[in-house]
Amino acid sequence: MNRNSNLYTFIFAIVMVSIIASALAYTSTSLKDLQQINVNGEKKQKILATIGIEMSREEATVHFDEYITSMVSVKSDGTVEPSVNAFEIDLKKELKRDYDQKPQTMPIYIAKKEGKTFYVLPLYGSGLWDAIWGYIALEEDENTVYGANFDHKGETPGLGAEITQGWFGEQFIGDKINTKEGEFVSIKVVKGGAKVSDLHGVDGISGGTITSDGVTDMVYDRLEYYLPYFKNN
To answer: I want to staple 210 with a disulfide (CB 3.0 to 4.6 A). Which of 124, 128, 152, 218 is the partner?
Structure first.
């Protein structure tokens, strides 16, 4: 075949694309299990960090069960769904069930530390550009925040992306999700800053109003979902 012909160039391009595509597909498939192990390790790391246990991803994988004594899959009416593995629940997929009018199932991670019980609740919502998520831990009274951390997919660096910083999550510690009368009010991210005496508000992010509002909505919606479970238990 004439190597200078268009046909040769066309065939050569098809062969090279096929080889590269096959190599990429093989690499992706062969690394899938390892990728999932890393994802699960990071997830365990974030959950433990919410109750003040700071570990590497590898350490969190080893010690996770020492602190997380049980994982519960909860339905919106507060009942438990024992057939669902709580750790494997995909929050993004569960939230999409709203559009199909199908019931959601959400996980609760029940932790023990220094003789105390904590409830770690996963969060998932929308920021300015894409998804935001995180975890919030409640103390035994099911009202006081013990810890919180947040993450995002595409918020603006220096603005909305600041939700990943320790100072932002630390503001939630000690705040209450219910009033003294027992009314659920959640915790609001306040533009311009919350009052020192406000146990239901934290300071917003300067220039990150939409992301701050997204965190407010996310925390309210996800915590409200678990109220029937806490009432039942």
So the answer is: 128
Q: Which helix (H) or strand (E) holds 72?
A: strand 68-75
Sheet holding 105-113, edge to edge: 68-75, 105-113, 116-126, 131-138, 145-152
Nearest Cα neighbor of 140 from 170, 107, 110, 101 is: 110
List, in sequence order, the alpha helices (H) in the chain.
Answer: 6-50, 57-67, 91-100, 166-170, 209-232
Distances 83 to 75, 88, 103, 105 between C-alpha atoms, Å: 12, 12, 15, 11
Q: Which pTM does this prediction carry? A: 0.82
Quick one: average pLDDT of 109-137?
Answer: 95
Question: Which residues, other chains included, contact 62 with Cβ-Cβ below 8 Å and sequence gap of 6+?
Answer: none
In this structure, the number of other CB atoms found within 10 A of the CB of residue 169 comes to 21
